Amino acid sequence: MGYLFPVSEIFESIQGEGNRAGLRCLFVRFQFCNLTCTWCDTKYTWLKESGSFKWYLPAELKGIIRQKGIKEVVFTGGEPTLFSLDQLVDPEFNYHVETNGTVIPTLPIEVQLPDGTMIKREAMNKNTIERFNWVVSPKLSNSRQKINVDSLKYWVGRDFSTFKFICSNDADIQEVQQIADDYNIDKNRVYIGLEGVSQKSQLKPEMVDKIVEQGFNFSPRLHILLWGATRKK
Ligand code: SF4
After folding, report:
1. How far apart are CA 77 and CA 163, in angstroms?
2. Is 81 a residue whose pLDDT tops 80?
3. Contacts of 98 (CB under 8 A, 6+ apart)
4. Is residue 51 over pLDDT 80?
5. How far is ligand 1, taken at its centre, from the CA of residue 129, in Å?
6. What is the pLDDT of residue 192?
7. Of 25, 85, 92, 156, which has the fewest beta carbons less than 10 angstroms from its beta carbon?
8. Ligand 1 center to residue 48 CA distance, Å?
9. Who's near 117: CB < 8 A, 6+ residues apart?
10. Is pLDDT of 49 > 80?
11. C-alpha–C-alpha distance, residues 49 and 166, integer Å
12. How far apart, in whole angstroms, are the C-alpha atoms of residue 145 and residue 105?
C-alpha cells in the first residue's frame, strides 16, 4: 500500500494565532499526537474512539490540497511532524506547520504513541522543510507534559521557526521567561496567547500588558474570539 497520511479534517479558515494571524489558509489536520496535554482542544485527534479520520496516499492528499486552490496551507494536528510532510509539497504553495516542538523533522522516527499506535517515517528533506513557516508550541507545566530538550534546542537553532506559548496567568508568563532564558530564545521570536475557549478568556488587557512589558509578542486567538470552541474554525 505504501506510505499513508492519517487526516482528521481539511477545512478553510483564517489562521487564528501566531505570526500569520488573519491569513486565509487551508488547514490539514492530522490524526494522532505523541503528547496528551490536559487542556488539549483537539482531543478528537488522539483520544481513541473519540474521532474519525481517513488514510490518504501522498499523491491523493497532495491532489486534494491542490484542488482547493488556497496557496497558504497549514499542517496541524494532532502532531503533524509525525508524518512525512515533505512529500506533500507543491512548489507554488506556502506551508505553515503547527508543532508541539518535541519531534525533529530531519531525523527518522519510529515511535509508539500513548494510545499504542506505531508511527514510522523517514527523515524529512532538509531543504524542503526549511521553506516552511514553523510555529513551535512547547507545552508549559500546566499541560502536564515535559519539554524535549534536544528538539527544543534544534528549533531554537532554526531561524525559520517562531515560538508560541499559551498562558493562563502570570506564573505561566514567568515560565515562558524562564524557558527563553534557559534556551537563549530571542523574545522577538516568541508569541504568547491567552488560554481558554470563551471570548471572555481572550479579552484580558492586563495579561497582554504583562506580555508586552516582558518583551514578548502577543498572539491573538482570533478563531476563539470569533467562533469560540467551534470545530473547523
Ligand atoms: S501537543 Fe497539541 S494536539 Fe497534542 S495533546 Fe498537546 S495540545 Fe493536543
Report:
1. 17
2. yes
3. 18, 74, 75, 76, 77, 80, 135, 137
4. no
5. 21
6. 98
7. 92
8. 14
9. 32
10. no
11. 27
12. 20
161-167 and 133-136 strand pairing = parallel
| Protein residue closest via CA to atom 7 of ligand 1 | 40
In the chain, where are the structural domains located? 5-165
Closest CA to 187 of 157, 166, 217: 217
Ligand 1 proximal residues by C-beta, below 6 Å: 33, 35-37, 40, 42, 45, 77-79, 100, 139
Q: Which three cell numbers stand for residue 203?
A: 479579552
**The cell 531561524 sits on which residue?**
159
Rounded to the nearest angstrom, the distance between the alpha carbon of 33 and the centre of ligand 1 is 6
Cell (9 digits) for 48: 481513541
Where does the pLDDT of residue 56 fall: very low under 50, low under 70, confident under 90, or very high at 90 and above? very high
For residue 144, the model assigns a pLDDT of 86
Kindly give the number of the ligand 1 atom that is closest to the alpha carbon of 34: 4
